[in-house]
Structure formats: C-alpha cells, structure tokens
Amino acid sequence: MKYHDTHFHLDLMPNPIEVVKQIEKSKIYTIAVTNSPEVFHYTESIAKNTKYIRPALGLHPELVGERYKEIKRFIELIDRTKYIGEIGLDNSDKPLSDYKKQIEVFEKIIASCADYEDKILTVHSRRAESDLLDILGNDFPGRVILHWYSGSIKNLEKAISRGYFISVNYQMTKSIKGQKIIDCIPSNQILLESDGPFISRGNNKFTPMMVNIVLDNLCVLKKSNNDELKNIILQNFYDLIRDK
Ligand SMILES: [Zn+2]
C-alpha cells in the first residue's frame, strides 16, 4: 500500500517542480492544497500529467479578510477538481468583522460543494470548531478531513461520529495536546499530512516524502501492532477517494 499526504502546500515550497518529481518517484498520493483560486491554476499546471498529485482548490480563512471577493472565482472553478482546500475558519486573532466574512465565505463554499456528491474537503478549524461543525451540518454529502485539529474533545467526537477523517501531522504527534487528540481518533479515521512547508523537523521542511515519520510516531502513540495499524491508516486514503 502506498503512502499519502492529504495536506501539503506544494506551491509554497522553494522548489515546487523538483518536489513534484520527488513525489512521483516516491509514489506518494498527495493532496496539494492551495490558499487562493489564483494559485490553483499554478498548482494544476505543475501537477498536470502526474499520477500522484491532486490539486485542491482553496481559499484560506486567514486570507479571506483581504481576499473575500475571490469567492466568485472559487465558485467558477469548482468543477475542475473534486479536491477542495485549504478552506475553513480561523478565529484565533482576527477582528470580528474579519471572522464574519470568513463565515459568509465558508457557508458559500459548503453550499456549493453540497451540490456534488464527491467533493473531498481539507478543512482548517482553529478556535472555530463549533461554528464550523454547525455550517457543515449533519448531511454534507462529500467527505471531510479536519486538518491539524486542535479543538475540544467534545467537538472532535462529534466530527468522528459524522464519519469525518482527521489528518495528523508531525507537530501533533509531538505535542501533549495533539497526543490527547490522537488518542481519541479511531484508526480507520486517521489520515497523514505533512502541512509542509509550515512544519519542520530540524532544518528540514516537511514534505510528503516524510509522512512515514508521522506514521511511525502514530504507531508508538497508539501502542499498536505496527503492521496492522500502518495498513489501516494507509488504507484510509483509498476509502477517502473511493466512489460512493
Ligand atoms: Zn495548511
């Protein structure tokens, strides 16, 4: 079974073309998230003719304040890919007016994605988990991945009961809070993410080629028979992309 990385900012790496080659050579399924519709074109173009890279259309919540008008472009492009991200809400250090715009944009994105059965979302939820779960609602028809979840266990349980996946990165496996969260996620709902280049290990920015480290750490934390757990987690990516 092949490795996967469901949240990687390919376009923000210093050498994206080189990384594309490495991903193809290493055969790692990669969801290449983008932070705005304009970047999506670039990622789509460098991922063209690749087997393992899936460009995702995004509008990052922390950029919505200044770029909310790009929602129009976002909706126009929504047919081009079934992968959507990075999207979501971030209420960590924004004025209320900014957060309100984020909610408006996120509602529009979710309403548009709900017109399809097969969208796969990678979602940012920092300090906004309750609002985010409310907007997604109980009946969202696509698949949802909560990326770098850092909220309450109660909201995590709600997300898990809805069948959402939680993508885990290196930083989460190293922090006490992250470990508590990992403890609560059933093995069949865990995915791997690098969140490169925002996470580093020593001097190295995380890339899809390093997700094996995340998987090894998860096995230690879950105190589980390595091969069995590894197979379950790697299988989860195939479940994520499987047709309904
Ligand atoms: Zn990200």
Automatic annotation (TrEMBL):
Among CDD domains, the record links this protein to:
TatD_DNAse
Q: What is this protein called?
A: TatD family hydrolase
Its domain of life?
A: Bacteria
One short Pfam name that applies is: TatD_DNase
Q: Look up and give the organism this protein is from.
A: Psychroserpens algicola
Fetch the InterPro entries from UniProt: Metal_Hydrolase, QatD, TatD-like
Give any GO molecular function from the UniProt entry.
Answer: hydrolase activity
What does the UniProt keyword field contain? Hydrolase
